[in-house]
Fold each of these.
Amino acid sequence: MITEIELTLTPYQAFSEEHYKPAAARKAGVSPDDISWLRIIRKSIDARSRAIKVNLSLRVYINEPLPPPVKSSFHYQGVHNKPEIIIIGAGPAGLAAALRIIELGARPVIIERGKPVEERSSDILLLEKNQGINPDSNYCFGEGGAGTYSDGKLYTRSKKRGDNSRILELFACHGAPESILYEAHPHIGSDKLPLVIKNIRETILSCGGSVYYNQRVTGFEVTGSQITKVITQDGKSYEARAVILATGHSARDMYELLQRSRIAMESKFFAMGVRVEHPQELIDSIQYHGQKTEYLPAASYNVVEQIDKRGVYSFCMCPGGQIVPSATAPEEVVVNGMSVSMRNSPYANSGLVVQIVEDDLKPFARYGALAGLALQQQLEQQCFRHAGSGQKSPAQRLTDFVNRKTTGSLPASSYLPGMIASDLSSWLPRFINDSLREGCRRIERKLKGYLTKDAVILGVESRTSSPVRIPRNEDTRQHIQIENLFPCGEGSGYAGGIVSSAIDGEASAEKCVEWLANERKA
Ligand SMILES: Cc1cc2nc3c(=O)[nH]c(=O)nc-3n(C[C@H](O)[C@H](O)[C@H](O)COP(=O)(O)OP(=O)(O)OC[C@H]3O[C@@H](n4cnc5c(N)ncnc54)[C@H](O)[C@@H]3O)c2cc1C
């Protein structure tokens, strides 16, 4: 017999099967020996009160044979001689699009500016040691995209974009831990993500798809309302019948190429700010009411404030994580966060960002649709100048920033390239400073202890979401001018984060295959 039960347990009881099996047997009304298998369906922590609880939904197999580890609902087939679809960019959107194209019986041809995932790590190491930046291979560019050496949080703020369980299953089928299928806040970690990406690539290649590396797309040949050729930096040209554009929001050169090619884009609102880092112990103590034990994971937080009609909010919180240099060009400094699967570093970091509104972009109006990009780039270059050496980041104690004081010595931080004490409030735009300052005061009212001299802010968290939209038809997902161009993922301005970009990639792949099939019939 198979039955489903709900348990509310202490963190200790919920920690491992050995601990919760007796409670599960009691609830199912059987002896523990009769339980052949327990599968977690959902798991969430409720730390609102001092008596912290873990809610577990379990499927109980009573004297039943073991089920397969993950039920695969994907049907990858050989597509060697099938019609080709070019995908530019091998991030979550491009890879999910490729897998969906295979399921639907077409052949994906991926063109990627960076290196295979295994080879990215040496460039990332150079960045961490502040020994230079490779503009085609870094935290944002290369196989797996920006999602690979990231935190690997697999949840979205928005539920409207689609069903994320299919994407979680896709990752689980390619080597991610099965826990992502039931955790309330699923997370893979940057130590495990590269293997998942490698496995996805192997599926694509074994079915007959192609992946071309070190191929930065630098040109399009446009005939009428179609792209007919995709051209790369070394002069190679790829015949194009249909193109999925999934280059992410850090590929400024792609937006510039679209602008040069007179392919329509729109400016879009986004958010920018700083990354704040606290000792993890402090966040654990705030969130777990001083009761953190080995049976609870590193605590996180999620805060949103509204200040003078602007949102100020935490972004991409990485408990037990590390702040990383995620610029994509020299003489720019950008910070972001990641963590490994164990989330066991002594630091907790998150973006603390401010919504950018129309007025903020007025000084950049001459850049048209790329106004937000220009503001972003200006701040990143200012950060470089204020730290003055490669990927070192300008930094200030959080309390000094809020109280407009100069920081003398900085606390320890996970940011490996190094920090330089800087009075961020003297050069960040006023609309960011004022909102962040007030935001911090209000967050302190909710998270007592957040505003501490032991916390440090680093600049600049500028790549939260795309400042540009590549407009597409809502139903067909075709670009509004170029009928065989399907913009998707974070760079299109219609998605943000790993899961939503992958969902978007799949959905665009479906429309692209449908369009191509109709074209071939016509
Ligand atoms: C350090 C870090 C941590 C993050 N942590 C998380 C997290 O925990 N959870 C989460 O949901 N999101 C996280 N994100 C954001 C997430 O990674 C992105 O939202 C997601 O990767 C977007 O997917 P995408 O496929 O649309 O674009 P991208 O991942 O940006 O992929 C775009 C791909 O296109 C390639 N490319 C770009 N230009 C060209 C060109 N001209 N020619 C050929 N190829 C090109 C790039 O090399 C890249 O591989 C993080 C990002 C960073 C940088």
Amino acid sequence: MQPRWSTAQPILPRHPRWGEFIDRLAGPEACNFHGDRWTCFGDLRFSVNILREMGVDNPSIEVAIAYFNDHGGFCDCEVIFNVESHRPGQ
Ligand SMILES: [Zn+2]
């Protein structure tokens, strides 16, 4: 399945689709949060897959990963715990 459109911009907390990204990352296709249980392989495989499916190009994915690392997100669940919680206005 092809993405409906591509974005040349990395999806970061200020991006209009950031919420969609976090919803998918926390959802059943990725971390699958259930209370205090979830799936995480200790890397960013789900984040990268979801960004790719959302039509983000590789350079923008690398920018996003660098941003996640800068904000304490070294694996998929840490993106939700550490990066998401730093969203401006929250
Ligand atoms: Zn994790």
Amino acid sequence: MEFHRLVAARRSLRAYSSRPVEPEKVERMLEAARWSPSCGNRQSWRFVVVGRDAPTRGAVEEALDAGNAWARRAPVLIVAGAGRRDGAVVESREYYLVDAGTSLMSLIYRGVDQGLLVHPMAGWKEAPLRAALGLPDAFAPMAVVAVGYAGKPEELDEATRRKDERPRVRKPLGEIAYSPMWEEPYAGTLPSSPAKVFETDLQLRFGDTDAMGHVNNAKIVTYLETGRVRFFSEVLGARRVEDIRFILAEVSCRYRIPILLHDRVRVRMRISDVSRSSFRFHYELADPGDGRVFVEAETVQVMYDYATGRPVPIDARVLAAVRDYASGG
Ligand SMILES: Cc1cc2nc3c(=O)[nH]c(=O)nc-3n(C[C@H](O)[C@H](O)[C@H](O)COP(=O)(O)O)c2cc1C
């Protein structure tokens, strides 16, 4: 998976299916962790893999906090941490925790890359975990990681399902990154949390559906195009086709729920990434009534000079208009 998709796909969701995890997938996760960077190459990370049938499994499940009871369904639990004495120390900085965190991230992403749901947890009791797994004092367990395939949210209890339905929130870039001094916000190209997302409603036609009564997958690409044309017209003031000087380089769709003819469909779209001569749209096709997301999609557009047949840098005015719109202007 491309890295930006991997970042977007990773979620700490809680509904696990009972489908077993192939041992080779777990091994690849550990292998990715093994190749992580570490201070002084001390590789102080350690992992204990506890499968469904392991004799230690019951005790590890017991050590989980009540709020993490959902993790008992995960076929594999991995205890991740680092050896306190194995890590490098620079001045007074102890790097074993950085080693543990860095390798944990590689472990997680390699799992997500293989289609797995990987959820790290801090909610467990250390003493029973230590006793169950025979962890030495010098080893600091940092996370119990649930590994498995995503299951059905409706099989979760109400409170846990609500947690998974909460909107994802992140601090804006300028709040977590500074330049060139502490608390001087780093200026990103686009606002990291757009104040305004472009929305437009679609008119479905009978001819869009296939023999199953679903909107045909190929039509979805046309829906995205409708969204783009309206975006260019309404946000950027394009009046003619020639005003839209880009070519489409990439389309990807994740079909989540079939769209039926009677469904109401709204396109919600924003520019999610800008490079020198290309930019990326992120789309959601959703029901404006109940918020169900039918399709998530992305497209990459390359600004293009049709006369010379070559990519050209993105026009500064276009970028300014997009920035202005996303900032709520
Ligand atoms: C070190 C660590 C400990 C966490 N502990 C728990 C936990 O005990 N229970 C839980 O449900 N989620 C836990 N999480 C998941 C976070 O709640 C989650 O990463 C955060 O809300 C952001 O959501 P996202 O991972 O889906 O982007 C933990 C995450 C990390 C990195």
Amino acid sequence: MSVVSVESKSRDRWISGYRRQKRDLYETPSWVTELLLPQIPRDIRTIWECACGSGQMASVLRAAGFDVVGTDIAMGHDFLDETQRCRFRAVDGVVTNPPYGRRHTLAVAFVENCMAAMRRDEIRLTAMLLPAEFDYSHTKQHLFSECPFFARKLVITRRIVWFQSDDPDKREAPKNNHAWFIWERHHEGRPQIFYCHPRREYAATNDVRIWWDGKV
Ligand SMILES: C[S@@+](CC[C@H](N)C(=O)[O-])C[C@H]1O[C@@H](n2cnc3c(N)ncnc32)[C@H](O)[C@@H]1O
């Protein structure tokens, strides 16, 4: 896949200290996808990475043993297009880092599309890497407090560096926090919150569970 150029003169040209990329092509570092792996239920075998970019997230999932279908609008597959709907029936779940769009409109549309597929009983899992505050707003509560499928939030306590600076003397200082949001078709009870970091272990307290043992 070709390298996507930087948009110019856009109002939100800068996002969290990085230049905004055309179609939101921010490739997810491997360690971020690896944090999700223990949270994927054992009965999930086939995954649709529906905004796969150059395939970084898909390759981590494949290396973990999943059958992965990767599509992207850059390949002519618009996830929000009706014609793509048939793909849901061929997979167990959807995992991606979606484009956010202005005021998160695209990310909301991506999650809504998956929730509709869950209601049709076509997929059992949706996992999306999103800004940590994505669940805060009143207008998104149909995806969280009012959504029976919302199962877990995996708070990532290390900030993601999306691009390495060309300047070796400049230390990257990303400003945004991210989390994995997980919805399951057969989830029962309240959603849970977990905290995770690629290098640290946290003691489990109260209802907070640790990520690395894969148990909930
Ligand atoms: C944030 S990047 C994520 C890339 C990849 N998932 C990863 O984590 O490395 C978002 C991707 O969404 C794609 N995209 C944007 N709008 C889309 C749409 N409507 N349908 C499918 N892909 C879309 C972009 O081309 C871009 O590759």
